[in-house]
Structure formats: C-alpha cells, structure tokens
Amino acid sequence: MRLPARLAPRPAVRRVGALLLLPLSAVPLLGAMPMILATYSKYVRYYSSPPLAAPRNVLPEADRGTFKPLPEYVDAIPVLVYHGINDRDDGYSISQRRFAAQMEMLKLAGFHTVSIAQYSRFQDGDVTGLPTRPILLTFDDGRLDSFRGADRVLAECGFRATMFVITGEIVERNPLYLSWAELHRMIRSGRWDVQPHAYRGYVRIAVDARGDQRPFYAARRYLRSIGEESFADYQQRVAGDLFTLAAQFKEQGIPVYSLSVPYGDYGQEDANNDPRIVPFVLPLMRSQFGTVFVQDDENDPPYTTPTEGGPEKRWEAHTFSTAEQLYDWLKGEDPALPQSLSRPAAAIPNDNQSPE
Amino acid sequence: MADGHEAGVEQTLLELTERHGVSDEQLARLLSWPAEEVARRRALAGGGASDGETQDNPAPTAPAAPRAQPGGRLDVVVRAVAVVYLVFLLAAVLLYKSAFLKMVTVSPLLAIYSLVVVCYISSRFLFSAFYRACGDHGLEPYVAVIMPAFNEQSAIGRSLRSLLELDYPADKLEIVAVNDGSTDGTLAEMQRVAARAGGRVRVINFANNRGKRAAMAAGIRATAAEIIAFVDSDSVLDRHAMRILMQRFHDPKVGGVCGHAEVLNVGANWMTKMQAVRYFVAFSVNKAAESVFNVVMCCSGCFSAYRREAVMPRLEWWEQQTFLGRPSTFGDDRSLTNCVLRGWKVQYEVKARSHTIVPDNFRQFMRQQLRWKRSWTRESVIAASFVWRKHPVAAVSAYVGMLLPVVAPVVAVHALLMVPAGGGGAPVLYIVGVYVMSVCYGLYYASRKPRYDCLWVYGIIFCFFYLAFLLWQTYWAIITTRSASWGTRPATAGTESELPLPAGRVVS
Q1: Chain B contacts of A21, Cβ < 8 Å?
Q2: The pTM is what?
Q3: Which residues from A are below 8 Å from B81, CB to CB?
Q4: Using the beta-carbon criterion (under 8 Å), do A32 and B428 form an inter-chain contact?
Q5: ipTM
Q6: What domain range is A109 assigned to?
C-alpha cells in the first residue's frame, strides 16, 4: 500500500551536471592560484626578507693581532664602496663573511663611521664632531641583498653606511631592490643614510654604429635612426634624468648631500669623449646633489679631503677583497704615516680583476 | 531501487506537508512539482485528498518515520570525494594562513581578522567532529508541547493534529494550545481538536491579544509537565523526533535541548535552497560544536525542549523582558535559551529532526534576518555577561562569535573598497577567502547528505548573498535593537498586534 512512488527518472544530464559541479568549483581557485603565488612571493620579498644574522668568528684569532690601530687623524676620510652582499662570484658582490671580516678589521683598527651629513660638513671644511679616524662606508645601487647582508653586521660593529639608490628600480618595483618603504625604515634605524645614484641613468647606451657602449651620463648617444644625438639632446637627456632623481628625493623628504656616479664615469674615462660633456655634467651633479663620488681606476685612491664637491674617489670592494687587503690600503694611504714605511709592495695594488 | 531512495525522501516531504496541512497548490510550488504530480503522489502515498478531517483518526497507514535514505554506490563515491576535497581545502587554508602569518604585524586588521575567522570556522568543523548523537536511554518523561496561536484558524488544527500523531506515549504527551485573542476561528478550531483528542489537548484562551511570550508563559504555567517543548507552527516533526529529543534529558544537568531543523520547502526556489544549506551547516556544524561543550547558544524555536525546573525560575523575567526600556517581543527562543543556559547544560540533538518552512522571497527573508540579528544583539549582550563561566573553549568561541559579525563589515569595506582605492591591489584574495569558506560549507553539506545533488552549490551562493546583503544589516540591527517591530507583516496588518506570524509561513 505504501510503496514508494516511482519517480520519473531525472535526465542523466542533470546528474552529470551535478557531478561536474565538484571539479568546476575548483576552477576559480585554480584561476586565483597564480595571483596567490605572486602575492606570496611579493609577501616573502617585502615582509619576510629580514636582515641576515651577522656571521660569527669571521676573523681568525691569528689575524686579529695584525690589525693594529692606525694613527688618529681628522683631516682626511677614506671612503669605501660595496655593491652587493651575496655568494655570487660576479666580481662586485662580496660574501657576508668577507664583509663582516672587513668591518671587524675596521673596528680593530680603530675606525669610526660617519654619516653622509657629517661627511658633507667635512667636505665644507667643518670637522667639528668628527670622530677620530673617521671612515665613510657606502653601498651603490640600493640592493636588497646589500641591506640584508650588511645590516646586522653594521649593528654589531656600531657602524653606519650610506646607500646610493637607483630610483628607476624602485619605480619599477624590482624585487631585488629596496623599496622606498624599506629605505625609510632603514633611515629610521639610524644605521643607514640614503642618497641618489641614478634614476634611469644606470644603463649603458650605444655610442656608435658598431655598438660600442658607454654609461648613460658619460657620452652622447647613438641611435640608428638619427645617428649621434646632438649635445643639446645629450644635455636634455642627462639633465632630465638628474633633475627627476633630485625631485624624487625631495618628494621622499630625504635630504641629499651627494651623488654616486653610475659606473664611476661622468665622461672623464674616455679621452676622446665630447670635451663639452665633463664641464657640463660635473658641475650639474655638484649643484644638484653636492659631493660627487666615483671609483678609482687603480683602486688605490688616497683618503678624501675637502674639495668642494669632488669627484671623490672610493676604494671599491670586489668579490675576493680581503680584510687584509683593505687594511693594507688604509695603512698605505694613511696621511699620518710616512708612505715609505707603510707600503708593503706585496699588498698593493689590489689583485682583483679590474672593474667591469 | 535508486529511484526508490529519492522517492522516499520526497515522499516524506509529501507526507509531512500533508500532515502539516499544506494544499496541493502550495506543495507544488514548494517542491517545484507540477500539480498533477503532487496529486499523483498524494494518491500513491495513500493519503487521498488533503482533508484534515480524514486524519482525525490516524489510519493504520500512518506515515512511517522519515529516515535519511541511503544513496547509491555512486553517491557514496562522490560523497567521499567531497570529504577529501573539503579536507584538502581546509588544509590548504591552514597552510596559506601559516605561510602568511607575518601579515599580522604588517596589516593587523585584515590579517588578525582573517586568522580568527579561519580558526573559528575550522574549530567549528573540528569540534562538530566530536559530536555524538544521544543513545536511547529509554526515557519517556511527561512532555507538554506549548503552541501559541493568533489568527491561524486555517493551520492550527492540522498543526495540533500532527503533534497528536507523534510516536510518544499518549498519556505522557500533553498539548497546550493558547489562543492569544484571535479574532478569527482559531479558538473554535482548537476546541474542535481538543474535543476529539481525549483530553490530550488543553486550550487556554485569552480574550485579548497579549503577545506571543505571554501566550507561551501561560501555556507553561498551565501544565505540570516535567519537560516543556516548543514546536513552531511552521514546523513539523519526524514521528520519533520527540522521543529522541527526550533522551538528552537523561543527564540531570541538561536544562535545554535543541532539535535539528531541515528546510521543508527546499524545492521552492533558490532562496529556500540557499537556506537549506545554511540551516544544515548552522545546526549540524555550529550547534553540534556548541553542544560538545554543553553551551548551545540558541535553541531554535522550530523544535526545542526545556526542563521545567530550568525554565520556571526565570519565567517571569523572560515573559516581561525589556531591553533598553522596551518590551522584547521577538527572539523568544534565544532569550529562553539564555535563561536556561546560565545554570544548565544546553545541548543539540541531530537525530531529533523537524522540518520548517522558510521565507521564499527576498523581502521576507531580509526582514526575518533583521529580526534575528536584533534579538541576537540583545541576547549576545546578556550571554556575554555569564558565558565566561562556561567551558573556556566554549566561552572563547562564544565571544569570538559575538565579535566577528561586528567586525566583518569593517573588514569587508576595508578589503573591497579601501585597499583597492589605496592602490593596495585587487580585493581578489578577500573574495577568494569568502569563496573557499563557502565551498567548504557546500562540501560539508554534500558530504553529509545521503544523496548527492547540486544543492550544495547553494552554499556558495549563500555566502555571497551574505556578503552582498546580510553582512550590512548588522549595524542597522544593532542600532535598532530596541525596535519591537516584527517587520514581516504588511502595513495593513499592523493594527492587529505584535503577535508574530513567522516569516514565510504558508497561510492556506
């Protein structure tokens, strides 16, 4: 009597459709996957890229004794430049261990780092407040790995450093470079100064039909369509880049005291260059930024002294630079030491490959 | 007999609605069947015409207790897939959260909120896994079902008769019908049923309308029953439901038990399908999780029972409850639960099933939800004052459950509008989060239902419906908590009284 009513069979299509809903429900999730992964890598990059711990025991006990304190001085400041801190053997990057060893050596030798503001006052002839045996540490490019590798080491030594940043990379949100937010955090930490390096100017450009390349600021550009640009075009291109760079720092509220010239080349490196370039660009850089920093061809520059704007030459760390080589250079150029006594032939010049 | 299973489920619905007194046309609308189909099945079910008179003397062919029908082999496989999928999703969410844990320091509001939401929801699933249905302790206490009515002459007779048909010893089940000053034939209808019920139906009559709580309180006072049960006039019970519910009272510390509610008019339209998934999750996940700690925050008015001893001390207070200077007219179920919860265990029984009719149109649904949110606000304030004395896990869950709906709109605005406006990326991740949560609910539904069908997808629709409409009601509900407006009746009916006609009830 109470037999279940026989249902009209539902279309099999409906059943299959219901089954298909299970895999279909995963489609939006799969669709969102790339975005989630991108978000994650961005998150890791910006929120989970803390400074690396400082390595321990970087200087062997035996070596420590060799880094004796150097004499005191205040009328000259050696300037060092680093690029990246990582384990790549690319000529310019240095391992965190080597970097830490150099910093510890500086500490043993009695150096005290100065801020870029202090250095700027020194350039103006004002030495009040300078510590004994001052030194300026700089990093070119504004790379994340530099910050991550250096920050804790600097903190342990009680040092500070100046980071010269390529704002074009920040604008492009290049994940390998520090963002403005990170740079501001670094400034707030009191361990870092942030200064300009270039906007779009950290590239090499073609300068002739053969494809020879020179740094962006250093030469007139060659374009296949129009040939070599006029000097006026050069001026417009370079000034435009530098003015934008200055404006960006103003917008960020970061005081500017200096400029590190990309590739250390504002046109002075090529004797056959347009002779109008150097007299144009160097004063422009000084007027916009203050002290101009470059590297030294021999990597054996003297300690810097007040020159009203440079160019000031920096000792450049290379992949295989050791604490000992740095100590020897510092000792060799020390203005307080008689040069004949302080220049052991073995240590100079630096035995690294020449830059680039 | 694959069809037989399906027929069984829908046959049950047919029987239930038949007992409940829904006309063929309404049934056709509710179940989305053609009228001829309804007539055909009614004939097959042996009920004949849906005339209440024929049911005064239950035939030997009284409807069997509706049971969950087992599905076919394919259903078993698909349900297993749904379970695996669900577990995978929950694991993926936890993995995601742990991977982004540091966001808590970067973007505290969004990150902490979403972390708490994830913990809260997964803890519901986790705790509900420890929930066990109550075994049979052979308990058959003396029960009184209180059924207040106001101007329900067309439905009250069938509602009362359906209670008389319950599988419970006749000498232990009393029905107290309270006529709350109806102006139609409700009283006559009650008396007609009572006259034939052999003293099992007691009728109390108010000459004037005094309100639902007054009617309920009068009903409670009129009986000496050990257990007081409430069944909505919109709800019908499985035949064994009352007996199953009573087994929970074998623990002398249990003061209240909430039965399970399914949506009866599930086939009506997408609104009711949506609510079907929502009810299922709300009961078999949320209430089950609460029940594990004996702290069920709301015994649904659909079907619940209280120990008389637990209700009496606060009955007067409950009847006269005011909130911020105004009488509390609705939310009587949540309020009564609160009264009992202070000093007693309150549990949920999944096997004691009722079937209830839910709103099938947007307007009614929104009004019902607003009403619920208002009483939720009022009762949360009250519950917050004592829940801390309960099990710490239950207390923390309760407070989090009170806080989340308040914070949710802020977070939604932040994620959907402010973050994109500030250049912080698209709100896609927020939407994905809501989607994952909704799929989880849907999958849970699919995995627990014997027969797999596409209904679970309405769980997804519900979550986005919630995001689009219900989320934003919260503040309005909080601001207007004092309001006593029932909100579901047309303006022309406003002259009658505050007596609730529950939203979506079918008036035949």
Answers
A1: 454, 456-457
A2: 0.68
A3: 22
A4: yes
A5: 0.70
A6: 76-202+258-268+290-347
